[in-house]
Specification:
5-stranded mixed β-sheet, binds zinc ion, disordered N terminus, 29% strand, Collagenase (Catalytic Domain), Jelly Rolls, single chain, alpha/beta
């Protein structure tokens, strides 16, 4: 266990962008200012101390929620240890969660390339008091030793949201080299997207999806490794879209339907900023999509994006770890968990009676829905 001395700071703060969506012009003029949603973004470079620890101070305005993306240019491991509010109270402490059987955020787990803290996660985490907050983090080198006097790049996104239970997310779906030319793949993906959009609409999130191509080998690496081209593609957009990559398979495993880089994943452009989907795993041995397989495909898109937006499985396969959401049922055996949670979108696997006959997984609890609506990349 590490102590938490305040690290010395070398802060470089730049306000990059203040985006404000203009109100709908068709709205009647009531004389009152219509709700305006804003996203502002700030970048800091901080330096770790002798123990590999660093602080990021950031100023929150009234009504904002935040996402901090920590990047390590040396590709060691970076993560969050503490989050301190303006009165000096601890809002989040890694030590409270490290031995827990409930999972709140992977921000507390050291990650390569980028680590993301979205706050608050749940309703019970409260709203952010205005003032200067501090994230204390740790950076390790590739041998897991403290990385002393190392730079950490922090991007802080602040979202003001006048309609927290309704939101919009922009999705960019990118086909890897040659995938678009495979027979039936584009039609299947578009049908899967339509189901995914329908599911998210039922939880208050409108998905606007655009399609593009990316020059990436369709034999995809693990999302935790990512691909430099993912970040390069996203850097061409100014509205922080979610990136979904369509490839042949993931990490050489033809049984992996899809994978999200982290829980949550970064809203900013990094090499791990993606959800990957395998079209071959869904199409099965005959390479053709049945209606049942398209249903699984849409649910894979919704499930993996659910991870990316911050949801864990309500129970992990093994029945000994659970999410940190109060209103998902508790269970501790396969039969009990399939019975109570098998219809939940975030159940760890599809519950099927055959390869093509799987029960719909189209439910989320209010607590789960609250998590994805608080993700800062969702307006
Ligand atoms: Zn999952």
């Amino acid at each position: 266990m590490h102590p938490h001395p305040r690290a010395s700071l070398a802060c470089l703060t730049t306000v990059l962008l203040v985006a404000a969506c203009s109100p709908d012009s068709k709205q009647p003029d009531t004389g009152e200012a219509p709700p305006v949603e804003t996203l502002r973004v700030e970048e800091q470079t901080v330096t770790s101390n002798n123990h590999g620890l660093f602080d990021v101070d950031f100023e929150v305005k009234d009504g904002e929620r935040v996402q901090l993306v920590l990047e390590d240019p040396n590709n060691g491991y970076v993560g969050t240890q503490l989050l301190i509010d303006p009165d000096g109270n601890t809002a989040l402490d890694r030590d409270d969660w490290s031995g827990s059987h409930n999972e709140l955020t992977e921000a507390l787990t050291g990650a390569q390339y980028a680590s993301t803290l979205n706050w608050p996660v749940r309703e019970e985490d409260g709203t952010l008091a205005p003032g200067v907050w501090t994230l204390s983090g740790e950076i390790l080198d590739r041998t897991q030793e403290p990385n002393k006097h190392a730079d950490v790049e922090a991007t802080i996104l602040y979202r003001t949201d006048d309609a927290p239970t309704a939101g919009t997310a922009h999705v960019v779906m990118a086909y890897c080299t040659g995938v678009r030319d495979q027979d039936g793949v584009v039609e299947a993906m578009e049908a899967g997207v339509a189901y995914w959009q329908e599911l998210y609409a039922s939880w208050g999130i409108t998905l606007t999806v655009e399609y593009t191509d990316i020059e990436v080998d369709p034999a995809l690496p693990d999302t935790y490794e990512g691909v430099e081209a993912y970040g390069e593609l996203l850097a061409g957009y100014d509205d922080y879209p979610l990136l979904m990559i369509v490839g042949d398979d993931i990490n050489g495993d033809s049984y992996i339907y899809g994978e999200a880089a982290a829980i949550p994943g970064p809203a900013t452009a990094t090499r791990i900023s993606a959800v990957e989907v395998s079209w071959l795993a869904h199409a099965g041995a005959n390479g053709k999509f049945s209606d049942g397989e398209i249903g699984i495909l849409g649910e894979t898109m919704a499930h993996e994006t659910g991870h990316y937006l911050g949801m864990f499985h309500p129970v992990e396969d093994g029945w000994q770890f659970w999410d940190a959401v109060d209103d998902t049922p508790e269970c501790n055996s396969m039969s009990q968990c399939q019975d109570k949670l098998g219809a939940n979108l975030m159940f760890p696997y599809p519950v099927c009676t055959s390869m093509v006959d799987c029960a719909p997984q189209d439910e989320l609890s209010d607590g789960q829905t609250g998590i994805i609506q608080r993700y800062v990349g969702v307006d």
